[in-house]
Amino acid sequence: MFASLSDRITGSFKQLRGKGRLSEADVDGTIREIRRALLEADVALPVVRQFTASVREKSVSALSSQALNPAQQVIKIVNDELVEVLGGDTRELNFASRPPTVIMLAGLQGAGKTTLAGKLGLWLREQDNKVLLVASDLQRPNAVNQLQIVGERAGVDVWAPEPGNGVGDPVQVARSGVEHGRQNHYNVVIVDTAGRLGVDEEMMEQARNIRDAVNPNETLFVLDAMIGQDAVQTSIAFRDGVGFTGVVLSKLDGDARGGAALSVRGVTGVPVLFASTGEKLEDFERFHADRMASRILD
Ligand code: GDP
């Protein structure tokens, strides 16, 4: 995903490496190049500004300290700043003190929520949790069936609408699903919700109603890393319309320019907790800012 960005940034370091002493102009040349590379990768402008200002300030101060290997220092500053932009240390999932822990998924249609429900379900089951998936996406005709399929693959149970479970009413399905989870000693209940193709007030309202009905310990916003510049507006709309406590970046295996992945934390202030890297349930991992930064800078 970051091939072009990575080539550009590492290319800009080459100009520094050849020099024994660095001037401010050298640093500025490198920063200009990095700035262009980030903008071309669709990283949000405020994030780019903040990043380059901070790298410049720290690099200029490193130059004045007559450090032994200034080029290496600047490269380290860029690396550290990239880790910072990506969110620093990854925090753990927030578990309820009294089970079940309720995790609600939100995001646009096609973002990868239903797939994520299966991935997260499998991941949590492998850590000895009893997991229930709740099919509150009643928007997409096939969503309930798809959740049942991923649930089966992940080896976790699925609560789907049936007479009495609230056919046609996603809020009622969510509420009865969490209640079923509580009564049957599930540790974690994951509530899949409906998205739309674009940001839509009805979808936001439904998500808010589900949120208020199930009072989640975590609301995870699933963001398709392939959607480029739209990622910023979409993230802000969900943050303000529903609110979320963590981000999951999906489709990081794609060949988009990667700006969404680099912007979402800076734009929303909410950490990225997980990364989805393919269609299979195993293509899923904790998000590590330092590993992502190394992938970009190596
Ligand atoms: P939802 O509408 O948000 O529930 O999205 P889905 O879970 O149905 O995913 C939409 C499509 O994206 C499906 O075809 C998934 O197989 C695919 N998908 C989901 N996550 C990933 C991922 O990390 N990488 C790739 N390549 N495809 C994914």
Short description:
With 298 residues, the chain is of the alpha/beta class. It has helices at residues 3-17, 24-40, 45-64, 70-86, 113-125, 143-154, 170-183, 201-214, 230-241, 259-268, 289-297; strands at 101-106, 131-136, 157-159, 188-193, 218-224, 246-250, 272-276, 284-286.
Features:
298 residues, alpha/beta, 8-stranded mixed beta sheet, 11 helices, 14% strand, elongated, binds guanosine-5'-diphosphate, GTP binding
Termini distance?
A: 13 Å
Principal-axes shape call:
elongated
Largest sheet, strands/sense/barrel: 8 strands, mixed
Strand order in space, largest sheet: 3-2-4-1-5-6-7-8
| Total of DSSP H or I helical runs spanning 4+ residues | 11
Helix content: 40-55%
GO biological process, one term: SRP-dependent cotranslational protein targeting to membrane
GO molecular function, one term: 7S RNA binding
Keywords: Cytoplasm, GTP-binding, Hydrolase, Nucleotide-binding, Ribonucleoprotein, RNA-binding, Signal recognition particle
Subunit structure: Part of the signal recognition particle protein translocation system, which is composed of SRP and FtsY.
